[in-house]
Write a structure and sequence with these properties.
alpha+beta, 30% helix, OB fold (Dihydrolipoamide Acetyltransferase, E2P), cytokine
């Protein structure tokens, strides 16, 4: 099986990010992010292909007070998603049809473009 040169660094980043998030459970923000580690995105500048895309949604609801902003996944992405930014600048992909996502969207300022 051949892996592209861009897929391997992304996989390594996600693996390391998952380990770091799971190993540091000192506060509530980190615990929520560890549960949602599979849906965290690298910094947007590191994404390849259509900008601001998600590959899956978080399976856990994130308390709105742990979030500072959100934006919409790029219209060219395969998965329609809301990308929340936590107070620690972690990006979390969420399903726009989930009730908790809609609640947090109402509580947070609208995205800036």
């Amino acid at each position: 099986m051949k892996i592209s040169g861009t897929a391997l660094p992304l996989f390594v980043f996600l693996l390391v990010a998952s380990f770091v998030l799971v190993s540091n459970t000192a506060d509530e923000d980190t615990k929520v992010q560890a549960e949602a580690a599979h849906s965290l995105l690298p910094d947007l500048g590191d994404l390849i292909g259509p900008d601001k895309c998600c590959h899956n949604y978080t399976s856990k609801a994130v308390p709105c007070h742990l979030l500072k902003s959100y934006f919409y996944a790029d219209g060219q992405c395969f998965l329609h998603a809301i990308i929340f930014v936590s107070r620690k600048n972690k990006k979390i992909c969420a399903n726009p049809e989930d009730k908790w996502v809609q609640k947090c969207q109402r509580e947070l300022p609208p995205p800036e473009y």
